[in-house]
Amino acid sequence: SSSTEHQNDNQSLNIIESSKALEKVQNLDKVLFIEDGKVVAFDSHENLCATCEAYKKMVDLQKLEDEKEGE
Predict the structure, then answer these.
(1) How many CB atoms lie within 10 A of CB 3?
(2) Among residues 65, 43, 67, which one has the least CA distance to residue 54?
């Protein structure tokens, strides 16, 4: 995954490509969730976890993977 930050006219835009790093995604104002090449949702991490089943499943699987790596 890669991360880029752009600044333009006092606005900040963070771009995270194919990120598995939840700590990065959780801190973004908005997350664009793409599944099978289609935009599924665009909202905050918190709202996506509450309203988008596919996003929540991805987050839960990532948490499990992180826990296994920590053992």
Answers:
(1) 11
(2) 43
